[in-house]
Specification:
This protein is of the alpha+beta class. Helix content is 18%, strand content 39%.
Length: 232
């Protein structure tokens, strides 16, 4: 008598968790407004929604703020959106450029208030035959959400191995899991230049499941009610 009901409960929970975890979320990308170039002591500031964003570390002189003189198209859109990320950075908008190398130090993004599951877009990481990487802290778990070629140089998706993002002309987005006020990493390999920006879902609380999730839940509960009535 109880087995069909128990099975239905397990199935419903699996569907609910799956449907609530794969929803693509609209992303607000940082509006970088100022930067100072430097190999070790560069800085950049901006905002994402109501949150102030500051960055300290390596900053290339060809970084772009206020959408002026864009060197990174963030196109095609399919390369920088996918998985839980519904939209990449706006075309020809802001970015912070890096060259990496053994002489560079730790790069750190700081949010003025805690953000949940922030995202990062990475462009042109490495080049043909010249790999490059972002090495994040073990306490900063993430997963690749999208990837592919860029309009400028082609290439392919970034890849991940543990806490490291690798690229040989790699492009794409990653999403961190957890609540963050800072994200830190190193770029140990030198390459002519690559770029990144960061975004959030515009909330400091876990995203509310989409209406479809509640429909699924309601349908499952109704089915269980019918099973209970039949067995009664």
């Amino acid at each position: 008598m109880t087995k069909p009901i128990t099975t239905s409960l397990v199935f419903l929970m699996a569907v609910f968790l799956a449907s609530s975890s794969v929803c693509a979320t609209p992303i607000s990308w940082t509006d970088w407004t100022a930067f100072t170039a430097g190999n070790l002591t560069g800085t950049a500031t901006g905002t994402v929604g109501a949150v102030n964003v500051s960055y300290a570390g390596q900053v290339g002189s060809n970084s772009v703020v206020n959408g002026v003189g864009g060197n990174t198209s963030w196109l095609p859109a399919s390369t920088f959106s996918g998985g839980t990320v519904s939209n990449g950075p706006a075309p020809n908008r802001d970015n912070i450029t890096l060259t990496g190398g053994t002489a560079t130090g730790v790069n750190t993004i700081t949010f003025s208030s805690a953000v949940v599951d922030p995202v990062m877009a990475i462009w042109s990481l490495g080049a043909g035959g010249v790999p490059a990487s972002f090495v994040f802290l073990p306490s900063e778990p993430f997963a690749i959400q999208s990837g592919g070629p860029s309009v400028e140089f082609g290439g392919s998706s970034i890849t991940a191995a543990g806490n490291i993002v690798n690229g040989i002309e790699g492009n794409g987005t990653i999403q961190f899991f957890g609540t963050f006020t800072q994200i830190s990493w190193t770029n140990p390999q030198f390459e002519s230049y690559y770029a990144f920006t960061v975004g959030t879902a515009g909330t400091t609380a876990p995203a509310v499941p989409e209406p479809g999730t509640y429909i699924t839940l309601g349908t499952g509960l109704f089915a269980i009610f019918v099973l209970i009535r039949r067995h009664a």
